[in-house]
Amino acid sequence: MTGTAINVGTVIAGTVVGLALRRKMPDRISHTVVQGIGVFTLFIGMSMALETKNVLVVLFSMAIGSVIGTAMDIEGWLERTASRLEARFARRESGGLARGFIAASLLFCVGPMAVLGSIQDGLTGDYRILVTKAIMDGFCSIAFAATLGAGVALSAAAILIYQGGLTLAATAIKGFLTDAAVREMTATGGLLIVGIGVDMLGIKKIHVANMLPAIAVALVLARLALKL
Hints:
With 228 residues, the protein is mainly α.
């Protein structure tokens, strides 16, 4: 839960700063910050991916997981769900507090980094992904709070429940996983993080959400590999 706690803290701190500034961060500064975080995200992803001891497990996990995720259209479902929720609450709640909460919660919770980071934190105690996400969310909170108000701070509760729940669930099943399975799941997740970094830097649009099933596939293939 350490990563989630840090994430909650940065959102609250960012909101305070945004309310104090009451203006958006200059584009040239925010752009440079995003690029820096993108490069760091690539570094984190590669360091995780290099932990693999069986590259074939990672390769087939990515391939099979991508097919499953694309067939399910996970990314499209997430985007449509977020749009429906935002539209529904926008009609029902006209106050700035509610708008800030909904907009920030959707941005901070609907994404592969929240899922991957929470699972990684629960399985291994490694919260580097969530720290990276926390920094990003902190800067976004500044801009959001400056325009949407104090409601942005309430999204910290959504982060705590959502990411905290995923972390606790991952911790609960950790005892049933072998070290090899955790290692290959970590390596596969690392490649997904690389994809997020590539996307952040504007190099290429990577549909990382559609690749999320690769984590579960890595678990299955790692266990099968041990039996061969």
